[in-house]
């Protein structure tokens, strides 16, 4: 989503600039700038995504390593993951109960 937004912003700004400079090539300049903007935003986001993934992998392999590195960050990430797991488990429980209710309805009202 961010990649598309970055491309649209870049393409729109370049298209407006091209409209004032040369009105004949607005589509070509705007679409080229949009593609270039999408590529550059995508490259920037890949770096951030890989950094976040590596922190999660380090936490999964040895949580105490992050605790020695930065205790405050360790507490924040532990709390966030605990909240996330509680949310996922409550969602799973809700889905299981919903499926049981569907099975009970099918048993009581055969089709």
From TrEMBL:
Membrane-topology descriptor: Multi-pass membrane protein
Predominant subcellular localization, coarse grouping: membrane
Alphabetized InterPro entries for the sequence: Choline_transptr-like
Keyword Repeat among record annotations: no
GO cellular component: membrane
Residues that span the membrane, as ranges: 34-59
GO molecular function, one term: transmembrane transporter activity
Keyword Disulfide bond: no
Keyword annotations from UniProtKB, A to Z: Membrane, Transmembrane, Transmembrane helix
Compartments where found: Membrane
Family assignment from sequence similarity: Belongs to the CTL (choline transporter-like) family.
Protein name: Uncharacterized protein
Organism for this UniProt entry: Kingdonia uniflora
């Amino acid at each position: 989503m961010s990649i598309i937004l970055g491309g649209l912003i870049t393409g729109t700004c370049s298209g407006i600039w091209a409209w004032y400079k040369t009105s004949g090539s607005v589509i070509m300049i705007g679409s080229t700038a949009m593609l270039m903007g999408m590529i550059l935003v995508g490259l920037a986001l890949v770096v951030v995504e890989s950094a976040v993934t590596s922190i999660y992998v380090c936490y999964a392999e040895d949580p105490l390593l992050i605790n020695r590195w930065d205790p405050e960050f360790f507490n924040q990430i532990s709390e966030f993951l605990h909240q996330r797991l509680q949310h996922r488990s409550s969602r799973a429980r809700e889905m299981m109960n919903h499926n049981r209710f569907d099975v009970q309805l099918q048993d009581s009202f055969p089709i």
